[in-house]
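Write out structure tokens for Oxidoreductase.
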Amino acid sequence: MRVNFTVNGRKQEADDVWEGESLLYVLRERMGLPGSKNACEQGECGSCTVRLDGVPVCSCLVAAGQAEGREIVTVEGLADYAKHRDDEHPGGGCAGGGCGTSLDAAKRWQAMPHDSQSGEQGTELSPIQQAFIDAGAVQCGFCTPGLLVAADEMLEHTPSPTDADIREALSGNLCRCTGYEKILDAVRLAAARQDEVV
Ligand code: FES
Ligand code: FES
């Protein structure tokens, strides 16, 4: 079957999708977007988290057919999504087909933060991505894409989260490296910076 959906704000289609295929598989293997990670493929670890119509889901548990006509945001589109949310679609995202990240741009996307030493300007990161780097919350990075998507969604709805809010929002995301404290620091940092801007 053919699946038509919006990925990172742009209309896309995937052909020859079979009924049991997961959204995670379609994103990684058909769309060429490997940012969402497949660790457990059982809904346990959250490393495959994407937003489906705005809601964080484990994409390994979503049948690709269920994504028909719906809007997906992956970690590759997170920076544009955050920017559009702030600039052009306050309170929403850049889903809908008119703006967003092209598939080619999403495939090429790499985290290249602003280098404060050389002054070199890299790809612009979303505030939560920058906070993860600044707080040292990334080790092997396998869990990071899912955590970023989940944390960004939480900050969208809860700009000044308590620690309990953060723990609740990230409770479905497992990390085997960091012990979570740096991840919590990163989300606190992003929230504090968000507060400063307002
Ligand atoms: S890969 Fe989907 S929850 Fe682990
Ligand atoms: S699993 Fe390695 S950084 Fe989280």
